[in-house]
Structures are given as structure tokens and as C-alpha cells.
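Translate sequence into C-alpha cells.
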Amino acid sequence: MPESNLTKKAIALSAKELTKEKPYDKISISDIADRCGIKRQTFYYHFQDKYDLLEWIIDKELLEPVEPLIQNGMINEALVLLFGSIERDKEFYTRASRLEGQNSFGSIAQSCVERVLLQVIKGQAEGRKSRYVWLTPERIAEYYAQSMCYVVITWIKSGMTISSRELAEIYNYMIKRSMTDILTEL
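Result follows.
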């Protein structure tokens, strides 16, 4: 593994450890650098700020492992893996989900999920013409990213009281049915 990735992982681990002591928005770059045993400039060589670091954590630890599953149509397996990773790192994601405002956890997560979904959708839609001009790959990706992030953040904030596997079943159930179907089945 290249040294740059090792350093990024060490920085991420330091930030995650610090969230056990104080809220993410109260952690400074100096705190992260000190915990990691690096200079602040080394942090800035790898990340623009702590929100860029959070985006990197979401991309590398949550989304990168599930992307091949999504590409191969293994959506349920991808959801189980994704939600299971969040569940295993429950303390960090619980604290990170409290991040509000301009750089909220929700907006960072949604942006990351949207990027992955857009790539998949564009790959699937290549060479095909949409039935509806307004229904672009970007809008589809945004719609599903919003819905997934809503479900995940609500699950995290409610204390993850159901298993990641059950959440995957519920999410799959919701995305495969119309609202009319769901209301009929209630």
C-alpha cells in the first residue's frame, strides 16, 4: 500500500478516536495531527480540512467496498455490507451523524453516495435514451442518494435498534415498491 494511503488511514483513525472524546465539529486539525503524530502541514498535504477527511472516510470505508457489488447488480449484498460497516463502527457514525450545518454529515454522505450512484447509472444507461427528458441520471442518483441517506441517518440517530441486515431488507422493500403498494401492504 502506498505511503500516502497509510498516512490517510492513520489520520482517519486519529479523527475517529477523537470523536470518542468530543464532537467532530469541536475537533481541530491540530488535535488530529497531534493524535496521529504528524505535523499540521502533513494533514493539509492529504486533506483540505476535517470535512474533506470525513468525506474520504465515507468514500473509502463505506462506499468503495460496496461499489463492485452495486456494479454487478448485487444491491442487497451491497446494502448489507454498507449498513454492517456502519454498525461495526457505531460509535463513530453516531457521533458523526450529529454534525449539522453547512458541512453536515448528511450533506457529505449524500454527495458521496450520489457520486457512486451516478457512475453506476451512467454506465447502465449508456447508449439508451430516457423515456423522460427531465429524468436524467443526475436526478435519479440524487433521488436515491437522498432516500438512502435519510434511511441510514434516521437508523443511526434512532440508536441502530434493528440490525443492518433487517435495515437492508426494509430499504430494499421500500425501493422496489411504489407508495401505493406500500400503503396497500401496511
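Note: The first helix runs from residue 3 to 18.
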